[in-house]
Design brief:
The chain is α/β, with parallel strands linked by helices and 199 residues long. It is built from five helices and ten strands, in the order ββαβααββαβαββββ. The longest helix has 12 residues.
Length: 199
């Protein structure tokens, strides 16, 4: 059976991105980059919006407010291009043009449930906040990992990650600090039907 990881890179206040800021908020360091390079091979899962954005980056589009990608960002995009990707969308037209991408229509949760049951190895989300929310609600997520960068993007932050998410109990299974400033926390999530002290 495959293991499903929901994986987020965030500001301290829970934004997935911020206008005018570079990738990793410009704060990635050698320890963090080395750790990224050590990650096991995964099949990446995403929705249409993330696919459009990331495939655009792979084709040379640069986010608003930036002139060009830094070397670290370009390398990360190149690695993602080489990885296996599954895109869940009823609005995109196939075949997908970004290398190693497969389009799946219909119910994403049921499709991923089937992938977990019949596959092996690691399935990992990238971006795709609504997809991640649906997978958590369905109880399919084995690991929930957040890498927090030491910035608060109150004015420029976009994509608040946890709005609309279910209540979760989180059992910490790993934590680490990179480069004296970047904090990783990893949990096993459990969906709560009501607060722990509720009736």
């Amino acid at each position: 059976m495959s293991e499903l990881l929901v994986d987020f890179i965030t500001s301290l206040d829970g934004h997935a991105s911020a206008e005018g800021w570079p990738g990793f908020w410009g704060l990635e360091g050698p320890e963090y980059l080395a750790w990224l390079g050590e990650q096991p091979e995964a099949t990446f899962l995403m929705g249409a919006r993330t696919y459009r954005q990331m495939s655009g980056f792979a084709a040379g589009e640069v986010p608003n407010g930036l002139d060009e990608f830094r070397d670290e960002e370009a390398e990360s995009i190149a690695e993602l291009t080489q990885a296996s990707k599954v895109v869940f969308s009823n609005s995109l037209d196939g075949p997908l043009t970004w290398a190693n991408s497969t389009l799946v229509r219909g119910d994403a949760v049921e499709a991923i449930r089937g992938m977990k049951e019949s596959g092996s190895g690691l399935l990992s989300t990238i971006g795709s906040l609504s997809l991640c929310r649906s997978l958590l609600k369905a109880g399919l997520v084995d690991r929930f990992r957040v890498v927090m960068f030491p910035v608060i993007t109150g004015f420029t932050g976009a994509e608040r990650i946890y709005d609309g998410y279910p209540d979760l109990a989180l059992e910490m299974i790993d934590h680490r600090t990179f480069d004296g400033r970047i904090q990783l926390v990893e949990y096993r999530p459990r969906v709560l039907e009501h607060p722990p002290l509720g009736g």
